[in-house]
UniProtKB/TrEMBL annotation:
<dbReference type="InterPro" id="IPR050309">
    <property type="entry name" value="Type-B_Carboxylest/Lipase"/>
</dbReference>
<keyword id="KW-0378">Hydrolase</keyword>
<dbReference type="InterPro" id="IPR019826">
    <property type="entry name" value="Carboxylesterase_B_AS"/>
</dbReference>
<dbReference type="Pfam" id="PF00135">
    <property type="entry name" value="COesterase"/>
</dbReference>
<feature type="domain" description="Carboxylesterase type B">
    <location>
        <begin position="4"/>
        <end position="479"/>
    </location>
</feature>
<dbReference type="GO" id="GO:0016787">
    <property type="term" value="F:hydrolase activity"/>
</dbReference>
<dbReference type="InterPro" id="IPR029058">
    <property type="entry name" value="AB_hydrolase_fold"/>
</dbReference>
<dbReference type="InterPro" id="IPR002018">
    <property type="entry name" value="CarbesteraseB"/>
</dbReference>
<protein>
    <recommendedName>
        <fullName>Carboxylic ester hydrolase</fullName>
        <ecNumber>3.1.1.-</ecNumber>
    </recommendedName>
</protein>
<comment type="similarity">
    <text>Belongs to the type-B carboxylesterase/lipase family.</text>
</comment>
Amino acid sequence: MERTVVETRYGRLRGEMNEGVFVWKGIPYAKAPVGERRFLPPEPPDAWDGVREATSFGPVVMQPSDPIFSGLLGRMSEAPSEDGLYLNIWSPAADGKKRPVLFWIHGGAFLFGSGSSPWYDGTAFAKHGDVVVVTINYRMNVFGFLHLGDSFGEAYAQAGNLGILDQVAALRWVKENIAAFGGDPDNITIFGESAGAASVGVLLSLPEASGLFRRAMLQSGSGSLLLRSPETAMAMTERILDKAGIRPGDRERLLSIPAEELLRAALSLGPGVMYGPVVDGRVLRRHPIEALRYGAASGIPILIGVTKDEYNLFTLTDPSWTKLGEKELLDRINREVGPVPEEAIRYYKETAEPSAPTWQTWLRIMTYRVFVEGMLRTADAQAAQGADVYMYRFDYETPVFGGQLKACHALELPFVFHNLHQPGVANFVGNRPEREAIANEMHYAWLSFARTGDPNGAHLPEAWPAYTNERKAAFVFSAASHVEDDPFGRERAAWQGR
């Protein structure tokens, strides 16, 4: 009889089998952060008696609907709740074998998302690579990143980074329990995309996460993405508390306001409110990439990359980008990401595709400043410490929406997970014939890296060299995947005024 009941430190869990892979869903890795525990760091879960059913995903954490993917995937089936700190596990067998573990942190701008999305289903990874896959939920938006210490005292000094502390708690749970599911607690690779990759960048720098993982993969994000200063975080918190009718120090109102009301108050302030980790001097002592330069993650191999046209995705949520002329676009970009040097302006003009609309030419600035720059700084910092670094760029262009998205943000996700068949995926990535080949290349490269720290193997058409300070190589995933030496070199030099 196939074994679906496992013994954890907290009690027994009964999972199920799907497509030849064992799955355990909705496993609590921390106590529910509700009532008196709202806005406090996570605590280990309570033990239970008997066998707990683990065949349904737990609730997702409090969040608004996803403005992009809800239309592609349909609304999530799990209702949002403050009680959302659950994880899910896919494994070939709970048999005592020590398999590599892939620990996934989802994206969503630290505002929305969950580990139960069908895009992150771990079945293909477990089946193709003989690995264990873990996906998690963690607190987001006002519940995970509200900087309360200045207004509510020492007990809430870590509130601005609760989402990160949740991730550490989930990692610690996996470290302590994953052997029961057929995983190797000493061979854990953390990986994530967008805000998930930003989380990975932070975890690489965090002493509390040291020793909880062996390798890291960062997709379209770094420790600088969505990072906030204490001043910025405090100003945002003051606006949200005022809108919610919570006076500084009014702990009773802070803990009793209904979660939906608090979230509505925050959302009513508009898209200018940004959530993310805070360099608070407590959880984050310094900027994560600066910490890497000082050796915070020395010896940890990383795989890191971007999609070619990251920022094009955001024209779906803000079509005004596509309607502006050159001057208006550049004025807006200067307001969003700071002044653009003349050398960079010349670079984007000289390298523009003749047939591309104006907005596509200039949104490359946003792609560089928001995503590429942090990737390069992270890669340089790790390479300088002697760690193995592998860089990639994803060039497959989706034909949907008239082709305007090109190789946009999040497009690589179903390729990495080999989930091109999941609901809604074709609506986003299209049906170009090269899809399957690229998915095989990426999927098995990620598996190889999780197993050995090296993405190479027969699945790639040519060897993927490491990124070093001497040879800044990147593997380009496309219809004809290949290696390029320093593909971001000219662009980086233009930004540096050279």
